Amino acid sequence: MPRVCFTLQVRPDRLDEYRTRHAQVWPDMLRALRDTGWSDYQLFLRDDGLVVGTLVTDDLAAAQAAMEETAANARWQADMAPFFELPDGRPDRSARPLDLIFDLGDQLAAAGDEPTTTIGATQ
C-alpha cells in the first residue's frame, strides 16, 4: 500500500491551539478517516508552522472523495480553516503532496540486501 506525504502551513499565531486540537481529535472524525481508507495517518509540526503529514492508503483520490462525503469532515474542515491562510479556506483541499524520491527498503532490496535491521540486533 502506498504512503502519501504532504505539507501544510499553520499560521504562527495559532500553533499552540493547533497542537491542542490534535491532541484529542473528535471520535467521529477518527472513525471517518479510518472508514474511508486512511491508515497510519500522522502529522508532524515544526515550530514555524510547517505541517508534514503521512498516511497509507490504497487510493488517495478515493479516500479524499469518501471523506468529502462525511459530516465529520465538513465540520472539522470548517473548524480548522482559521488555522491556515488558504485560498479556498479548506486545508484538506490545499495539502501539497510530495514525491517520494528515496526509500531505503526498496533500494536495499534492489541491491539484494536485507531491507531492515533492528537496533541492537546481533549480527
Report Rg.
17 Å
Give the total of beta strands. 4
Structural class: alpha+beta
Hey, roughly how much beta strand do the residues contain?
A: 15-25%
Largest sheet: 4 strands, antiparallel
Overall mean confidence score, pLDDT: 89
- Which strands sit side by side, in order, in the main sheet? 2-3-1-4
Total of domains: 1
* CATH classification, class level: Alpha Beta
- Give the CA-CA distance, first to last residue: 30 Å
Principal-axis shape: globular
Order of helices and strands: EHHEEHHHEH
The helix content, as a percent range, equals: 25-40%
Give the CATH topology: Alpha-Beta Plaits
Low-confidence stretches: none
Oligomeric form: single chain
Number of helices: 6
| CATH architecture label name | 2-Layer Sandwich
List the keywords.
alpha+beta, Alpha-Beta Plaits
Describe what this molecule looks like in 3D:
- It contains six helices and four strands; from the N terminus they run E-H-H-E-E-H-H-H-E-H.
- With 123 residues, it is α+β, with helices and mostly antiparallel strands.
- The protein has one domain (3-110): Alpha-Beta Plaits.
- The protein has a four-stranded antiparallel β-sheet with strand order 2-3-1-4, with no helix packed on it.
- The longest helix is centred in the middle third of the chain and has 10 residues, at 71-80.
- The protein is globular.
- The protein starts with a strand and ends in a 13-residue tail after the last helix.
- The mean pLDDT is 89.
